[in-house]
Amino acid sequence: MQDSGKQAGDSVFVHGGTVPGNPGIPAYVLKLCDPSPIPVVIAVPHAGRAYPRALLDRMRHPDFAAPRLEDRYVDLLAEAVALETGAALLVAHAPRAMLDLNRSCDDVDWEMLGGVPADASTLPGTFSRRARSGLGLVPRRLPGLGELWKRRLDHAELQDRIGAIHQPYHSALASALELIRDRWGAALLIDLHSMPPLAARSAGEAAPEFVIGDRFGSSCDGGIIGSAFAVLAQSARRASHNRPYAGGYVLERHAKRHEGVHCFQLEIDRTCYLDQRQFELGVGFDATVSLLIGLVRRLAVDVAELGRTADRGRWRAAAE
């Protein structure tokens, strides 16, 4: 992490990485309190809006494609929740159109690149499912729009983006989780996203407004997930588990249940907090913030208890 040196009371702001083509704009901003008041980190990898002019000039339909790639304004939800709860907050400023932080560095569609090394066909990720779908490390296509870019991306430029955005962001996230886990004995990452409205799964059944993804139980303690569903149910909000979003690279990389680091992905229907066009904040924003505040506070209690249980286990093992 690269500390900017800026502080506000007991809050520390860490700026790191860079957005290539936008001098002075960090790839991410991390805000946390030291010591942390609760064992929760909220991360927002897909809401960045720091678009370099050159990036927009390369896009075929930037006014349409760029907002569709974003988790539009979900960072504003996260900021309001973190302010009220004391959760650590990591927000990417780099836009998803430039680099998808929820993808592995080798999740690349090599056909969209120029200047590719001769042995690229042997590298991992060449035939990855996400890259084939058009939504790999650098998005290539969108449904209903087709190809996003006017020309190929140079391989060297991709490597620059990885070094300036991907590596610093994930390093900062790992450090924040480790810091909080060391204080509390356990830490929880809520990887926050938004989604277009889902279709109803069957006739007479309303579509979910929230999707909780824990990679089918591998990334998070089941009790935490149960509490999350209970909070949503108490507010009469419809939720789905792992379908259609089970979590991506962020969970794969950072979840370490056996080391006390628990992670889940939370998808929110954009109509819950945006207007009918899903473009600006809507009348549901405040209610969604209140719901998420209650969720974070409830889960913080659960995670703290997990940490105390883990500490007691370590003490018993040390005494034997």
Descriptive keywords:
320 residues, alpha/beta, Aminopeptidase, 9-stranded mixed beta sheet, two-stranded parallel sheet, 8 helices
How many discrete domains? 1
| CATH class term | Alpha Beta
How many β-strand stretches? 13
Any idea what the CATH superfamily is called?
Zn-dependent exopeptidases
Strand order of the largest sheet: 1-2-3-5-4-10-13-11-12
The N- and C-terminal alpha carbons lie at a distance of: 38 Å
Largest sheet: 9 strands, mixed
Percentage of residues in helical conformation: 25-40%
Proportion of residues in β-strands: 15-25%
Give the count of helical stretches: 8
Mean pLDDT: 91
What is the fold's blueprint, element by element?
Blueprint: E1 3-8, E2 11-16, E3 28-33, E4 40-44, H1 53-58, H2 62-69, H3 74-85, E5 88-92, E6 113-114, H4 129-133, E7 141-142, E8 146-147, E9 153-154, H5 155-184, E10 187-195, E11 210-213, H6 222-234, E12 239-241, H7 249-254, E13 261-269, H8 285-319
Parallel strand pairs: 4-5, 4-10, 6-9, 10-13, 11-12
Antiparallel strand pairs: 1-2, 2-3, 3-5, 7-8, 11-13
Helix pairs in contact: 3-8, 6-8
Q: How would you characterize this protein structure?
A:
- With 320 residues, this protein is an alpha/beta fold.
- It has a single domain (3-99, 155-197, 205-274, 293-314), classed as 3-Layer(aba) Sandwich (Aminopeptidase), CATH 3.40.630.
- The chain contains eight helices and 13 strands.
- The chain has helices spanning 53-58, 62-69, 74-85, 129-133, 155-184, 222-234, 249-254, 285-319; strands spanning 3-8, 11-16, 28-33, 40-44, 88-92, 113-114, 141-142, 146-147, 153-154, 187-195, 210-213, 239-241, 261-269.
- It has a nine-stranded mixed sheet, sandwiched between helices. The chain has a two-stranded parallel ribbon with strand order 6-9.
- Helix 3 crosses helix 8 and helix 6 runs antiparallel to helix 8.
- The two termini are 38 Å apart.
- 42% of the residues are buried.
